[in-house]
Amino acid sequence: MSRSRKPTADEKRLWRAVMQGVTPLRPDNPVPEDVPPPAAPADEPARRLKEAIKAAPLPAPKPPLPPLAPGKTPGLDRRSADRLRRGRMDIDGRLDLHGMSQAVAHDALTGFVLASHRMGRRAVLVITGKGLYGERSGVLKSAVPRWLNDAPLRDKILAFQPAQPKDGGSGALYVLLKRRRDG
User: Fold this and answer.
1) What is the pLDDT of residues 58-104, one digit of tens each?
2) Could you tell me where the DSSP H helices lie in the chain?
3) What share of the chain is helix, strand, coil (3-state, %, to 5)?
4) Which phi and psi (to 5°) does residue 126 adopt?
5) Strands across the sheet with 123-127, in order?
6) How far apart are CA 116 and CA 93, in angstroms?
């Protein structure tokens, strides 16, 4: 057996305001008129709330993160920067971009970095290749550092460095990801 509670006077006024201008489906069952229409002061709290929202200052935008470049490790302690540069960090994942077009490589890099960050990986290796034309730099070799500095990847990355010869040398990059902050 359920008990139904009676609506308060404020609830009745609110219902009346909501139902104002509504035509009943069955005119033989009219809405009871025992509650007076809402008074002007009932709208006062809503009006004050709207004014407070309009007057509230917008949160300040985050300052842009400094661009990353090999050899630059802002926000990274010297010991960690040395370990990254010397290839002494455990590699938690590898991505080989050899033979991919720029569009495919960009999508693969974005997915790999975001997934690695979500999984809590810290250091990953991205193999770009050195390029095919002797002295000129490869297309992916020059594009990957730009992509790492762009959204949505930049805010997930602490630093990147060219890899040691054992890991691909100048045709690969060590990428150090930020720790994942849940909460």
Assistant:
1) 777 778 888 888 877 777 889 999 999 999 999 999 999 988 999 99
2) 9-19, 44-55, 78-85, 102-118, 139-149
3) 40, 15, 50
4) -115, 115
5) 93-96, 123-127, 172-177, 157-162
6) 8
Positive or negative CA dihedral for 96, 156, 178, 181?
negative
Q: What are phi and psi of 158, to 5 degrees?
A: -90, -45
For residue 181, what pLDDT is reported?
80
Two structure tokens written together for 173: 């990059």
Work out the end-to-end distance of the chain between its first and last CA atoms, rounded to an integer number of angstroms.
Answer: 43
User: Residue 124 forms beta bridges with which residues?
Assistant: 93, 175
Alpha-carbon distance values, 175 to 17, 77, 108, 127 (Å): 60, 15, 15, 11
Question: What is the pLDDT confidence band of residue 41, given thresholds at 50, 70 and 90?
Answer: low
Distances (CA, A) of 113 to 1, 63, 69, 96, 122: 58, 22, 17, 13, 10
* pTM assigned to the model: 0.65
Q: Which amino acid is at 120?
A: G
Q: What pLDDT, in 10s, does the model give residues 116-156? A: 999 999 999 999 988 776 556 789 999 999 999 998 999 99
